[in-house]
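Q: What residues go here?
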């Protein structure tokens, strides 16, 4: 296990194909460290996969940070948990064979939100992010300099949880911080669809090809 504190329960799958960027898989509310492993393999076959479990419990369901209500986040807890997770990722890079570049986050819902928070609060921890159904986690002042880090946002056209305005606002925020952001609307709601696989797979293949 990783000599990092605080520790996260996690799964690590070594790379089957050398030269690919590694993936940091971040589940949604109620998920576990096992949930997104198959998704990661489908999105970028053969890549190393690191999948931690959120350390906050909401009615027994793991999350990565506390919320006060649907869409209302405990910002102090969010900041603290973001730095905890970033420290874990930094330690993992020196413990596991994650390659020479920072991992690419693949986050769904709550996992996408903490991935966005990592981009905003700990630039350099991630080499890019595929954000599935995210919203704005927080607005730091000042904004970081993200230097063109690639970000793909997949928003549900009929999402009952994340409004279109939230999706657009996150894209604008990350662009103002210097990220290279693409925002795509998929047919469907908050759950994942085959369209997410297609868009996400192209995004990650593009990063792998550029490397």
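A:
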């Amino acid at each position: 296990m990783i000599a990092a504190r605080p520790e996260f329960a996690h799964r690590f799958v070594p790379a089957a194909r050398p030269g690919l960027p590694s993936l940091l898989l971040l589940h949604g509310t109620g998920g576990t460290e096992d949930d997104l492993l198959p998704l990661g393999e489908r999105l970028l076959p053969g890549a190393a996969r690191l999948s931690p479990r959120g350390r906050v419990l909401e009615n027994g369901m793991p999350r990565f940070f506390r919320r006060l209500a649907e869409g209302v986040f405990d910002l102090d807890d969010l900041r603290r948990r973001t730095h905890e997770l970033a420290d874990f990722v930094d330690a993992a890079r020196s413990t596991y064979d994650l390659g020479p570049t920072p991992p690419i986050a693949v986050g769904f819902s709550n996992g996408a939100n903490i991935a966005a928070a990592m981009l905003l609060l700990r630039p350099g921890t991630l080499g890019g992010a595929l954000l599935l159904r995210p919203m704005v986690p927080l607005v730091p002042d000042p904004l970081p300099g993200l230097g063109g880090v690639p970000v793909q946002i997949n928003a549900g056209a009929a999402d009952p949880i994340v409004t279109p305005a939230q999706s657009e606002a996150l894209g604008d925020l990350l662009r103002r911080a210097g990220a290279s952001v693409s925002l795509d609307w998929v047919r469907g709601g908050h759950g994942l669809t085959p369209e997410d696989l297609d868009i996400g797979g192209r995004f990650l293949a593009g990063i792998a090809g550029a490397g």
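A: Context that may help when evaluating the design: Confidence is low (pLDDT under 50) at residues 1-5. DSSP finds five helices and eleven strands in the chain.
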